[in-house]
Design brief:
- The chain is an all-alpha fold.
- The protein has one domain.
- It has three helices and no strands.
- It has helices at 7-15, 44-62, 70-108.
- Helix 1 runs antiparallel to helix 3 (70-108) and helix 2 packs antiparallel against helix 3.
- The chain is elongated, with a radius of gyration of 18 Å.
- The two termini are 32 Å apart.
């Protein structure tokens, strides 16, 4: 069996933290680590799964809009927008790093005989 080290996945595991104002609008900040060490971010299936994980984490951080009062809906919308933007910027970096690592691995396998 071949084991590959996925530096981008490890980076994202440590780096994706969703932090924003919770639905209740208290002074407390909540965050959740979204792990991706088990995902291959070089393909669309791995990327889609990470986006699903981010969506679930945003829901945990910001709460649910179901049954919320009008003022709570505005707070939820703001929270989810900030949390998703923060996470997706880190997502973009992790996907790029995964692709860069894949290219570097391919280049390192080349043997030049002269």
């Amino acid at each position: 069996m071949i084991y590959r080290v996925r530096p981008a996945a490890m980076l994202l595991s440590a780096a994706v933290v969703l932090a924003s104002v919770p639905l209740a609008a208290s002074a407390q900040t909540r965050s959740i680590n979204v792990h991706s060490y088990d995902l291959d971010l070089t393909n669309s299936a791995g990327q889609a799964e990470l986006q699903r994980r981010i969506d679930r984490a945003v829901g945990h951080v910001c709460g649910s809009a179901v049954g919320a009062r009008l003022d709570e809906l505005a707070s939820y919308a703001s929270c989810s927008k900030v949390a998703r933007a923060n996470a997706m910027s880190q997502y973009d970096v992790a996907v790029k790093a995964a692709h860069d690592a894949q290219v570097a691995t391919r280049q390192n396998r080349d043997v030049i005989v002269r």
